[in-house]
Amino acid sequence: MTMTMERFAQICEAYGSNPQAWPAGERAAAQALVASSADARSLLERAAGLDERLAVLPSLMPSASLRARVLTSRVEPIEPSWLAGLRELLSWRPAVPALALALVAGIAVGLWMSAEPTDQLDVVNVASFHNDFEDY
């Protein structure tokens, strides 16, 4: 596997100059690039300089009171807009029985209007109309 200068720069920026901190799968290719490229060695030296400057900074730990405040603080969850809309729709619970009744009534009327004539008299009347208009 070969290492590009771009990827080596990303590794140095993310992991620093210590090869043990580099991703294991890319470590050998990165070390080979350092051995063969002056530009890679220059990047590594800059990363080492940054590592040295960061190492002398004091480690800042939060105070006990800050830690307690953070741990006891409660963050309100952000509700998605569609969930707020659903919650508002469900707040119309008193209207649900009226809507259900209207739905049942609409289905009943639709079924009643589309029913086939089952009465024998209706069939006979339709047949007799046919005979009455044969001459026309």
Describe the structure.
- With 136 residues, the chain is an all-alpha fold.
- The protein has a domain at 5-55.
- The chain contains 7 helices and no strands.
- The chain has helices at residues 5-15, 24-36, 38-55, 64-72, 81-90, 96-113, 120-132.
- Helix 1 (5-15) runs parallel beside helix 3 and helix 2 (24-36) crosses helix 3 (38-55).
- It starts with a helix and ends with a helix.
Briefly say what this structure is:
By secondary structure, the chain is mostly helical.
Layout of helices and strands, plus pairs?
Elements: H1 5-15, H2 24-36, H3 38-55, H4 64-72, H5 81-90, H6 96-113, H7 120-132
Helix pairs in contact: 1-3, 2-3
Which key features would you list for this structure?
mainly alpha; 136 residues; 68% helix; 7 helices; single chain
Radius of gyration from the alpha-carbon trace, in angstroms: 41 Å
**Share of helix, binned:** 55-70%
Described by the principal axes of the CA atoms, the overall outline is: elongated
> How would a crystallographer describe the biggest sheet?
none
Structural class: mainly alpha
Count of DSSP-assigned helices: 7
List segments where confidence is low: pLDDT < 50 over at least 5 consecutive residues: none
- Strand proportion, as a percent range, falls in under 5%
Mean pLDDT, rounded to whole units? Answer: 82
SSE sequence, one letter per element: HHHHHHH
Amino-to-carboxy terminus distance: 95 Å
